[in-house]
Amino acid sequence: CTCMNRSLSWSRVVRLGAYEPPLSTSILHGKYSKWYEMLELLGSRLGLDVRGCVPPNAVVVAMPMSYIRWWFRGINHASVLAKFVAKSAGLHRRNLLLRKETPAQASMTASQRLLLRTKSIRPMPLVQLHGKAVVLVDDVLTTGRSLEVASKALRRIGASTITVAVVAVTNLPERAKKVESVSFTP
Fold first, then answer.
1. Nearest Cα to 133, choosing from 46, 16, 12, 49?
2. What is the CA radius of gyration of the chain?
């Protein structure tokens, strides 16, 4: 899979819809208002769509959040989403990645996001996946750079295939052809 003249580290993207209301407002409320039940609903719905797209022994991994950002926000939204994706899809979830503190991506332009350093996301020490399929969960796919960095880290520890599962995808024209759309009805 390629996008914007770069090779992507994942084979498939599953999403609920475009980053526009009601999904965008639901994501923002879950993320910044600590609305756990909304994240549970979104993760559970996403997990139903993931269920038929990956092998039954796939491992669900959340996009990592730095501990400092987690502490200030009071919620690790990607981890909550991943918990309910795994539960709904009948898969196991593992915490396999660590993230260094970086500027908040919401404050970055697309070109700034593409410069995200590959060492900002790394695997936890002494973990291996031994050829397992992975479902990498995040809230929004914008440029795909953080998902790319996380996917490469997962490949280094033995992931055989990576399916990205996101609640929403921003309307980047290059990306539109590369994602599967599943409608969301609240």
1. 12
2. 15
> For residues 166 and 128, what is the distance between their CA atoms, to the nearest angstrom?
24
Kindly report the length of the chain: 186
pLDDT digits (tens, 9 = 90+) for 106-147: 565 656 655 555 668 999 998 999 999 999 999 999 988 889
Q: What does pTM read for this prediction?
A: 0.82
**Distance in angstroms (rounded) separating the CA atoms of residues 175 and 104:** 22
Strands 59-62 and 92-93, by their bridges, are parallel
Which of 48, 75, 78 shows the shortest CA–CA distance to 61?
78
CA dihedral 155, 133, 168, 74 (to 10 degrees): -70
158/70 Cα distance (integer angstroms): 27
Which residue carries 């490469």 as its tokens? 152
Q: Compute the distance between CA of residue 96 and CA of residue 29 in angstroms, rounded to an integer.
A: 26
